[in-house]
Amino acid sequence: MVAMVCHSLVARDFHIRRGTDMTIRCDTAAMDPVVRSALKMLAADLHDVFGICLVAVTESDGAIVVRQSPVKLDGRVRKEGFSLTVGRDGRLYVEGSDSHGIAYGLLELSRLIGVSPWTWWADCTPQPRDEFSLKQGYQNRQAPAVEFRGIFINDEDWGLTPWACHTHEPAREGVVGERTHERIFQLLLRLRANTLWPAMHSCTVPFFLTPGNREMARRYGIYIGTSHCEPMACNVNGEWSVRGEGEYDYVNNSEAVRRFWEKRVEEVASQPVLYTLGMRGVHDGAMNGAKTIDEQRAVLERVIDDQRAMLRRHVGSDVTTVPQMFVPYKEVLDIYNSRLRVPDDVTLMWCDDNYGYITHMPTADERRRSGGNGIYYHVSYWGRPHDYLWLGTFSPALLVQQMTTAYEHDVRKIWILNVGDIKPAEYQTELFLDLAWRGSADWHTHLQAFLEREFGTDIAQRVLPVLAEYYRLAYVCKPEFLGGTRTEEADRQYWNTVRDLPWTVSQIDLRLAAYERLEQVVEDVWARVPTDRQDAFFHLVKYPVQACAEMNKKLLIAQKARHDLAPWQASWQAYDSIAALTARYNQGYNNGGKWQGMMDAAPRRMPVFARIDATSQAAALVGERDTLARFNACEGRGRKLRRWTGVGYEGGAVEIPDGQRLTFEFDATGREAEVELHLLPTHPYNGRNVAVQVLLDGQPSDTLDYTTHGRSEEWKQNVLRSQAVRRVRMPLDSDKHQHRLDVRALTPGVVLDQLFLF
Predict the structure, then answer these.
(1) pLDDT digits over 456-512, tens only?
(2) What is the model's pTM?
(3) Which residues are paired to 637 by β-bridges?
(4) How many helices (H) does the chain have, and how many strands (E)?
(5) Which residue spans within 564-634 are E strands per DSSP?
(6) Which residues, listed in sequence order, are joined to residue 23 by a DSSP beta bridge?
């Protein structure tokens, strides 16, 4: 008897073994549907990995015990927090502050046993295991840094919508149905997100007009939000022509517009919705009926008051408890800056400029608002000066730099990422949502962990430098920008003509050689990829790297060929290679054509995607220019500097705090020098301007202000080349051979990339 008692007091580890079904105790009747959905996902994962069943029990504790209990981090209870703990009895206790926390805790166990969040969306099928264990005393406690975290499916015309309605769940044209949305919601739960802005182009049947969609969102606990031009959970672009009456105009047709909004609020009042307040035009344009800023401000204030009255009537009498946001996007930012009155409990949803540079950081007053601040960010975009919809080339380093800065400015209420069709931007999506969960991340370490999880240590070590260079090269120039074309310009004939970039022959040759190396490494690694990982590797690594390399060949070899410096045939072969790679992407290797129709290598049929016709160019290419000195910003020295690894043309840039200096030393003779600064094209953090000053041998330059406004020509040049450039001629002290140059920040937000002296 004594021996039995002593044995029962021995601490035990938690084990999962192949052939032994798991028991779990969870009062699902008392839980929200999201918990039942997470349990279903975990059960499928356990079956895939161990070949076992998850058996629910009610009268005993089970090997896994699930319960709702306040989860504290940093001394306070955290919403959506979870805790995994192995007790002395060997049971795994999964606790959550609420239903979402429990769901994330259950799916954390899926992560621990080796199930990737991309198990379905990137064919990263989990590897079978015989056993898994956690030591007695193990504890894993987490909670989100940002309250609402999610994605916006946008510009879906060439990917998600045709794939969904023709391949995944064949239906009438344009339907993205409940089966597709279930897969999207499962991905969001696995990525610890809770919000979706659904696809909203005219090619897609609106989310709430598609049977089963809203019910599926409720089942997975996903907040449905709407974008900057879709107030009150209404897809105006797709719904006004169906449900609206007359013009979408709050000045001249306000009663019909109110009925349009209120009917939707009545329909969705019982489920999680993140309501967008305000009003714009039918599709991403300025509102009708009000012309001046003052008129627009007056209309918007009336609109917001009326919308909140609807929420009081149908969602909650205390409207401050209903999640709401206001998005100062494009022209609406000008209206907001004219002293628009926005209720304090409404989240201010700031935006980037569509190319990754956040246009506004909250002021001290905005940071104190009870509604907090949010961000709407792009890693895919349709519009001026040029789309980038094809490949997921957006710089992870820039994403981290900008979002970390936003988080440090208390942008912590809502983070939404425009992901295009999801598929081309898998990695950026996970990085963004992990940042929203944790508050910070090192992108290089994060990317390494991502690759190790999906492909193992050996392949990850070989591919990590390839992807780091792939992102760096695309930061210098995205593949869609290589033709020197633009979209939505007045002179369409001129801007639809592929032309030379202002690059020297040596710049072109160095870039082509870099891509040749990347392609070769990927091809060598491909031979090592296991059969069951071929589709995943092709989608996440091989296709983006090789298709991007071939796009560079197609356009840069064509640029040389126009000057009789290369054969046209090489450009045409690259065009054919892109077509072959894209066909393979859609056909797949072992997935049975699961992704047929998802990848289109010419979205919007832009001229840059076409086969380049043979032409001649008499004018010479840009010539080389001799330099007195050149530096990467990271070569400078100074106090309180912040170095951003991976950002910039050479993989490193330096943020110079307001009033601080970055110092360089160089040898040169002469009477004067031209100083050329290459900076990140950031927008003012102080709401006014972004500016620097150069001091050469102690002599200061004038203020070099590089603030841009709206979609100016300078802004277009900046985002296409990922740099703002300022030049100044300054005297050299002719009595010295060694010189000192200081770059002094005159405002917050200054990030220096490169420095040249001529």
Answers:
(1) 999 999 999 999 999 999 999 999 999 999 999 999 999 999 999 999 999 999 999
(2) 0.97
(3) 663
(4) 20, 29
(5) 629-632
(6) 55
